[in-house]
Amino acid sequence: MGETHANMVEVLNELVPPLAARKPRYLMGVGMPRDILAAVRAGVDMFDCVLPTRNGRNGYAFTATCPLRLRNEQYKAQDEPLEAGCPCPTCRRFSRAYIRHLFLAGR
Ligand SMILES: [Zn+2]
């Protein structure tokens, strides 16, 4: 906690590979997408962190390019999906504006 991303990656790459791959490798308190991906690359299998749930509850959506804070006014009239070209059900069906509306309506 509190270390830089590069420092975290360095430590994970040193500590995780020697652990038995046939047993679960667990990491606690890491919840940002970039950090999760780096940990998976190092061999971590399971995570436990409040951050993804908290971010979702507060209207954050992480895209390939940047996080979106959907409660912001700038998304009020955006008809585009969260992530252009994403085949997931949310991106296929709902616009940023509609998801923002749901957050503001408390749905
Ligand atoms: Zn999507």
Please state the structural category.
alpha+beta
* Chain-averaged pLDDT: 94
**Helix content, binned percent:** 40-55%
Shape annotation? elongated
Lateral arrangement of strands in the main beta sheet: 1-2
Distance between the termini: 33 Å
Report the strand count. 4
Low-confidence stretches: none
Strand residue percentage: 5-15%
What count of domains describes the coordinates?
2
Give a description of the structure.
It is a single chain. 40% of the residues lie in helices and 11% in strands. The protein has two domains: 45 residues; 53 residues, no CATH class. The two termini are 33 Å apart. By secondary structure, it is of the alpha+beta class. The strands form two sheets. A two-stranded parallel sheet has the order 1-2. It has a two-stranded antiparallel ribbon with strand order 3-4. The mean pLDDT is 94.
Quick overview of this protein structure:
The protein is of the alpha+beta class and 107 residues long. The protein is built from five helices and four strands; from the N terminus they run H-E-H-E-H-E-E-H-H. Strands 1-2 form a two-stranded parallel ribbon. Strands 3-4 form a two-stranded antiparallel ribbon.
Topology (SSEs and partners):
Blueprint: H1 5-15, E1 26-28, H2 33-42, E2 46-48, H3 51-57, E3 60-62, E4 67-69, H4 89-93, H5 96-105
Parallel strand pairs: 1-2
Antiparallel strand pairs: 3-4
Helix pairs in contact: 1-2
This protein binds zinc ion.
Zinc ion binds at residues 82-83, 86, 88, 90-91.
